[in-house]
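Dear H.,

Thanks for agreeing to be a second pair of eyes. The structure we're designing against is below in token form, covering all 355 positions.
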């Protein structure tokens, strides 16, 4: 999280000099693998937690329309794994990658497995090369469980990710969630532009692949990645700041309309508040500040003060205008009656002056 300007020694240490010290070498080793991206099927991407309680993370919502055992889902997932490795952001990783795309592992295992065990002469059907892809529901479910059991029993050290693979529901023992994971060429970066470009590229490709290969039948699939907390905070600051600007203008507009009903005052007040907001943002940009937590707080404070001060000035001007209008009306009334009094006196004394 960036709290100071980019050139501040604290920020420079965090971004550049920290990795020169021995205690940060472990972090550097983790970053060399690249940022892993996971594509998740079987869950609905919704945040049902309380936005007012940071400890309430909500609960998982299962996508009942997703069925990995269907032939269409099997074909799509196999094509997705191939397409992922053909992307420019994919980073090749050493090792067998047994569970990163479990369907490829299952497909390869079944194609190479003979139906008769050469030692025990026991049939292995349907988990053998006589089963054709896409597999029927019973064969897929049975063989996948058998393959997972063998995978974690004999080659646990070759498991690259603890998240990738098929996830079973505890009550029904059926596959509910599927996670496909591969590393990418991007590393963890504090720069918002770099991470934003990477994340939009991944999501754009995923949307395109869902539309072209599956006609949006797997529309609830979504991508996640590690160490994007800072990016999420930066994105919230960018969108939240602009939202607060327009929300402040809307609240000021409604407040002035309810108190003045004067379109000239409304226009002048909104223009004043907008000028203060954009002037504050321009001064921060010209001063070399980048939008972060401190800058966002300054902008929000400026917005609040501008709305409050402008509303007070508008109400004070309107009150003064009403008092001034009453004063002018009273003055005109007095002058009018004084004029009648002088005319009457002149008419009364005019004969006397003639004599």
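And this is the sequence the design step returned. I haven't edited it by hand at all.
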């Amino acid at each position: 999280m960036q709290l100071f300007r980019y050139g501040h020694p604290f920020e420079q240490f965090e971004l550049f000099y920290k990795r020169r010290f021995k205690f940060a070498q472990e972090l550097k080793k983790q970053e060399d693998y690249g940022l892993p991206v996971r594509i998740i099927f079987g869950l609905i991407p919704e945040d049902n937690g309380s936005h007012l309680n940071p400890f309430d993370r909500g609960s998982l919502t299962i996508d009942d329309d997703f069925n990995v055992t269907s032939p269409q889902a099997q074909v799509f997932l196999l094509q997705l794994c191939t397409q992922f490795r053909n992307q420019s952001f994919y980073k090749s990783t050493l090792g067998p990658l047994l569970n990163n795309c479990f369907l490829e592992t299952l497909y390869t295992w079944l194609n190479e497995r003979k139906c008769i065990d050469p030692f025990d002469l026991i049939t292995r059907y349907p988990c053998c090369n006589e089963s054709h892809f896409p597999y029927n529901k019973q064969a897929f479910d049975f063989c996948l469980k058998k393959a997972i059991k063998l995978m974690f029993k004999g080659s646990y050290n070759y498991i690259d990710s603890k998240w990738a693979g098929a996830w079973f529901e505890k009550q029904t023992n059926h596959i509910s969630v599927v996670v496909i994971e591969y590393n990418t060429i991007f590393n963890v970066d504090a720069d918002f532009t770099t991470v934003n470009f990477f994340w939009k590229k991944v999501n754009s490709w995923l949307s395109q692949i869902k539309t072209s290969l599956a006609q949006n039948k797997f529309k609830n699939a979504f991508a996640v990645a590690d160490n994007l907390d800072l990016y999420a905070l930066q994105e919230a600051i960018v969108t939240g700041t602009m939202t607060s600007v327009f929300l402040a203008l809307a609240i000021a507009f409604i407040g002035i309309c309810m108190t003045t009903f004067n379109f000239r005052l409304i226009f002048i007040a909104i223009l004043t508040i907008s000028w203060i907001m954009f002037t504050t943002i321009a001064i921060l940009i010209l001063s070399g500040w980048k939008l972060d937590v401190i800058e966002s707080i300054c902008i929000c404070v400026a917005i609040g003060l501008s709305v409050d001060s402008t509303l007070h000035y508008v109400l004070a001007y309107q009150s003064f205008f009403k008092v001034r209008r009453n004063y002018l009306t009273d003055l005109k009334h007095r002058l009018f009656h004084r004029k009648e009094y002088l005319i009457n006196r002149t008419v009364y004394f005019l004969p006397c002056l003639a004599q």
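Two observations from my side: Confidence is low (pLDDT under 50) at residues 338-355. The chain has two domains: 33-225, 236-351.

Warmly,
E.
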